[in-house]
Design a protein that fits this description.
The chain is an all-alpha fold. It contains 16 helices and no strands.
């Protein structure tokens, strides 16, 4: 057997770790998706959008678009797109406005699950919540100012993704919904198992060491330690459910210092799933100038400032309000 291929004992350990991690994630995900489904069935999510109206005006969006963002924060981007499609018929928006809204959704969506994953890894819930909400609003406001003064992207929104609204989660029968969620959960297990195998292979091939060296200048500038770089990259490309899941595992084993877990997950929170979610928002009418480029630059700057500021704070303050031990 080649040096790179895992032995049978290693495969058993990888499978066990993947199963344990998936089970821990399911304990977070299952209650949340059930609660959100109940909110949808009772048509209560719309009331959560009312307090968002002033913030929508701040970023140059119609008040009705608060419902889209509220849906994204509580549920997922697909549900938010369905709401957006139902609203733009009566409340048309420009491509610039769609870019602002979609960028804000990318920064702050699926919060109930993603924030719980972050909390399980050690970072404090209140700061992680505020960092994503405040960052989404600040970035939305910056894009609003930029597009308004530059006159860019003022044409009507062009939505490429047009799902059948009758089959969206808001109208989906409970049995079909449960079957779909079960399939999603099973997919999560196999994806996590694949990531464990990939991480094992990358370590054997010394690719993680090469990734650390390549990323080290940027991560060093931001203040993220080398041991967190690989899982940070996975979170940036695949999303918090996977990158955060691996960080839970690494944090519990003590391989990554708790400060680096905090910095890494803060960065992931602002800028994750760069490929899939970005393409989805492009299809929903957004533009890459905000969805990708502005989001990456903003996240790099914001996390660098957070790292520098946290270094000036007393250790006791950080332990109480910013980072902690994994659960």
């Amino acid at each position: 057997m080649s040096q790179e291929a895992p032995s049978s004992n290693e495969l058993i350990l990888l499978f066990r770790d993947a199963f344990k991690l998936t089970f821990d994630l399911f304990k977070i995900i299952v209650p949340v998706v059930i609660a959100v489904k109940i909110l949808q069935e009772l048509d209560l999510i719309k009331y959560l959008a009312i307090p968002l109206s002033p913030f929508m005006r701040l970023v140059g969006l119609p008040a009705e678009m608060g419902l889209v963002w509220a849906t994204a924060m509580l549920n997922n981007l697909y549900s938010a797109i369905a709401v957006l499609l139902s609203l733009v018929k009566e409340t048309p928006i420009t491509t610039a406005q769609a870019t602002i809204l979609c960028t804000m959704m990318l920064v702050a969506h699926n919060l109930l699950i993603e924030l719980k994953i972050a909390q399980t890894s050690g970072p404090r819930l209140i700061f992680q919540t505020l960092s994503r909400l405040v960052s989404a609003l600040i970035l939305g406001w910056i894009l609003h100012i930029f597009y308004s003064y530059s006159g860019l992207l003022q044409q009507p929104i062009n939505i490429l993704l047009k799902p059948d609204l009758e089959s969206t989660p808001q109208n989906e029968p409970w049995i079909s919904w449960a079957a779909g969620e079960a399939q999603n959960l099973l997919s999560i297990f196999f994806i996590i198992l694949g990531l464990f195998l990939l991480m094992h292979l990358l370590k054997k091939l010394k690719i993680i060491d090469a990734m650390n060296r390549l990323l080290r200048p940027v991560l060093k500038l931001m203040g993220i330690g080398p041991k967190a770089s690989a899982v940070t990259v996975i979170g940036l490309t695949l999303g918090i459910a996977y990158g955060g899941g691996l960080i839970i595992h690494e944090a519990r084993t003590g391989h990554i210092p708790k400060k680096d877990v905090f910095y890494s997950l803060t960065f992931m929170g602002l800028c994750h799933s760069l490929i899939e979610d970005t393409l989805l928002m492009v299809m929903a009418g957004g533009h890459l100038s905000g969805l990708l480029f502005a989001r990456i630059v903003f996240s790099l700057v914001a996390v660098t400032l957070i790292v520098k500021a946290s270094a000036l704070l007393p250790q006791a303050f950080g332990d109480k309000f910013l980072w902690g031990d994994p659960r």
